Amino acid sequence: MEHVRIRTVKKEDFLEIMNLASKCAPIPIERDSIYHLFTKYFANTCFVAEKDNKIVGYILGFISQLEKNIAYIHNICISPDLRRKKIGSSLYQKFFQNMKKEKCQKIFLIINPSNKLSISYHESLGFNISKEGEEIYIEGIRATKNYNGPGKHMVIMCKSL
Ligand SMILES: CC(C)(COP(=O)(O)OP(=O)(O)OC[C@H]1O[C@@H](n2cnc3c(N)ncnc32)[C@H](O)[C@@H]1OP(=O)(O)O)[C@@H](O)C(=O)NCCC(=O)NCCS
C-alpha cells in the first residue's frame, strides 16, 4: 500500500475534504456545508488518509443517535490518481475497528444501483444488500424502490460487525 497515515478528521480538514469530494464522481455533488457537519460534529466517526500532508481519501460516518448500535456511512472517496492502492480498504478497517469499540453491531450505507463497482466493492468488504422496503430490480440488482424520493431507487447495504 502507498505510505498513507489514517487519522480522525479535524475541523480544519473541511476545505480539503470538500475539494476532494468534487472529484469523486459518481458520488453526487452536495452542499458544501455538509462537510462541516462531519468535520465539526461527527469527527470521532470520520477518518482521512494523508499522504505527504495532503488528504487523499476520506470516509464520513456517524452513529445513530436513536439506536446507538447502528452506524451509517455517508460516503467514502479516494483521490482518483490513488485508487486501487488499498487506501479505501484501510479507511474501512479503521472505521470497522472504531465502530466495534463503540459497540456498534451494524453499519449501513446506500449506493446508487448504477454504481456497480461500489456495490461489488462493498460486498467484498462484507456488506450485503438489505431487503428493506419495497423491492425493485435494476439490471439484476435488488434496490429499494423510491428510497430517495419518487423514481430514485437506492441499494441499501448492511454489514454486521
Ligand atoms: C470505491 C473506492 C472508495 C475504492 O477505494 P480504493 O482505495 O480505490 O480501493 P482498494 O484499493 O481498497 O480496493 C480493494 C479491492 O476492491 C476492488 N476494486 C476497487 N476498485 C476497483 C475498480 N475500479 N475495479 C475493479 N475492482 C475494484 C478490487 O478487488 C480491489 O483489490 P485489488 O486492487 O487487489 O484487485 C474508490 O474507487 C472511490 O473513491 N470511488 C469513487 C467514489 C465512490 O464510488 N464511493 C463509494 C460510494 S458509496
* Ligand identities: coenzyme A
Number of DSSP helices?
4
- Helix content percent band: 25-40%
Would you report the number of β strands?
9
Using the coordinates shown, work out and report the CATH topology of the largest domain. Aminopeptidase
User: Rg, please?
Assistant: 15 Å
Specify the overall morphology. Answer: globular
The total domain count is: 2
Q: N- to C-terminal separation?
A: 25 Å
The secondary-structure class comes to alpha+beta
The main pleated sheet reads as: 7 strands, mixed
Q: N-to-C SSE series?
A: EHHEEEHEHEEEE
CATH architecture of the largest domain: 3-Layer(aba) Sandwich
Return the CATH class of the largest domain.
Alpha Beta
Unreliable segments of 5+ consecutive residues: none
**Strand coverage percent:** 25-35%
* Average predicted local confidence, pLDDT: 94
